[in-house]
Design goal:
It is built from 24 helices and 8 strands. It has 500 residues and is mainly alpha-helical.
């Protein structure tokens, strides 16, 4: 696989840091820095696009805390280490972990750079496509934020410099999702092939056709997220997505092509895969697949693609209730990750053909779209197996095993929805934040009950992440209004689209 180096120069990094704040009061620190307009007109917006794309998966702390410890453990993909089991699998609150994604997005320049690109390229013909790409990235960034926290600063976020908004309001999640569809419409209508080349795009190298497919596949994901609370709007947007053109193969997958740069390298802040660094921790790998993951994989070829067998040739997972040292007969009996999954240069899958097909299978089964449920289901499974080739090469794929496995995947009458959503759960492996959001939407698959006496939620999966405590002083009024909506900022209070 071709590696793309995304070294940011000292100059660009310095500018990015200038856009950085320490928490989401989002623009509180811009009271002084926003007075110098020259600092915003000298950085190439294409370089900012590169940084935004890299930051979506290159940040170590949010990948470790929000994606691995909470996301992957909440949905019982992995377990075993102290932090993943204690805080994620057993539902123990940690302010640092709960606030990780918020601080990484609002507090380290990602949102500010995104807003800056949108403002500076808006209405300028030479940046027409770049602006459309930035709008698509806006939905990707804010969807992850609102799904994790609920109501968030959105319409006024990052506007301290441009509109002197230093205390951004928290928009209702329903309004945010409604705007997502509007923003995706704008992006779709703006994109033009054969016009100005797009520089700085490390997702698709400026391929407009692929960006249009991403827009519609992202539209489908958003539509399915709200499908239980707004079924009419969801149905409309699902049809619009398919008509506009969604992913048609794994070649369309949106993923980050990381290089092997270590974290915290000067001038290359987000190059290496942040999740890889989180999995490795201090070199030793303490996490393992769960027993439910192994059970639901069954004869799925992904079992071998993702994990190594133990010394006796068996694939064994850990009960999510246990730490690795609780496992019997010993931790040596547990399966381990394939090393290529956590290389510094490992890619990061953001949105895939597999997920798209499996969402369409669900939509068709639930009457939100008129399509061939079984075809979408099997196509999604096969794509979900083959998509992992980008982590190494074709040697990890056995075509005969895939054919034999697919022959067994016939939807069981009365269990269709559970089987479809279970495949969604599998295809989102290592994308813990998205997997967690999709799990809350569907409450499937049925996970192993957490029965530990030290579980702070009595075994109940948390429903959202609480807002950072710092917001209570830096953006006090807006914080208090939003917190009240979620039972005094409880992580057991549901977000708007979570109606089950």
């Amino acid at each position: 696989m071709k590696k793309y180096t995304i070294q940011l120069t000292q100059y660009i990094l310095a500018t990015v840091l200038l856009l950085t704040t320490t928490n989401c009061a989002d623009d509180e620190l811009f009271r002084e820095t926003n007075t110098n307009p020259e600092t915003f007109v000298t950085i190439d917006p294409s370089a900012q696009i590169t940084g935004i794309q890299a930051a979506l998966s290159g940040g170590v702390f949010e990948q470790w805390r929000a994606n691995l410890i909470y996301g992957e453990a909440f949905v019982q993909h992995i377990g075993g280490s102290w932090s993943v089991s204690r805080y994620g699998a057993h539902f123990t609150a940690s302010r640092e972990y709960q606030e990780a994604l918020w601080n990484a997005n609002y507090g380290t320049g990602l949102v500010q750079n995104l807003v800056d690109v949108l403002e500076r390229t808006n209405g300028k013909p030479e940046f027409n496509n770049l602006n459309a790409i930035a709008k698509t990235l806006k939905v990707m960034v804010f969807q992850r934020l609102t799904d994790l926290y609920g109501d968030i600063p959105y319409s006024e976020a990052g506007l301290g410099y441009y509109k002197n908004i230093f205390y951004p309001k928290y928009d209702n999640q329903k309004d945010i999702y409604t705007d997502f569809f509007k923003v995706l419409d704008e992006a779709q209508n703006q994109l033009r092939s054969g016009t100005e080349p797009v520089k700085g795009d490390i997702f698709y190298s400026g391929d407009i056709t692929k960006w249009k497919k991403l827009i519609n596949s992202l539209r489908l994901r958003c539509a399915m997220r709200i499908s239980k609370v707004e079924p009419t709007l969801a149905k409309e947007q699902i049809q619009k997505a398919v008509t506009g053109g969604i992913f048609t193969s794994n070649d369309d997958n949106c993923y980050m092509k990381h290089d092997s740069t270590l974290p915290f390298t000067t001038g290359a802040l987000n190059n290496g895969n942040g999740l890889s660094h989180a999995i490795k921790g201090n070199v030793l790998i303490y996490d393992h697949p769960t027993s439910i993951l192994m059970d639901l994989l069954g004869t799925d070829p992904r079992k071998k693609i993702w994990f190594q067998a133990n010394s006796t040739g068996d694939y064994v997972g850990i009960n999510p209730n246990n730490f690795q040292w609780d496992h019997r007969p010993s931790v040596a009996n547990l399966s381990t990750f394939q090393p290529y999954l956590y290389e510094n240069s490992a890619p990061y899958l953001h949105l895939t053909y597999s997920e798209t097909m499996l969402l369409l299978a669900e939509a068709s089964f639930r009457g939100l779209y008129s399509g061939d449920v079984k075809n979408f289901y099997k196509t999604g499974i096969e794509a979900g197996i083959r998509q992992w080739i980008i982590f190494k090469d074709a040697s990890i794929i056995n075509n005969n095993e895939i054919t034999a496995f697919l022959a067994t995947k016939n939807l069981t009458p009365g269990k269709e929805l559970e089987e479809i959503v279970t495949q969604q759960w599998l295809t989102l492996f290592l994308n813990g934040m998205e997997g967690y959001s999709n799990y809350r939407r569907t409450n499937l698959p049925v996970l192993i009950k957490i029965t530990r006496a030290d579980s702070e939620t009595n075994g109940v999966v948390p429903k959202r992440m609480p807002y950072p405590v710092e917001e209570s002083t830096s953006n006090k009024d807006n914080f208090e209004a939003a917190s009240a909506k979620y039972n005094n900022n409880s992580w057991l209070a549901k977000v708007w689209w979570d109606v089950d």
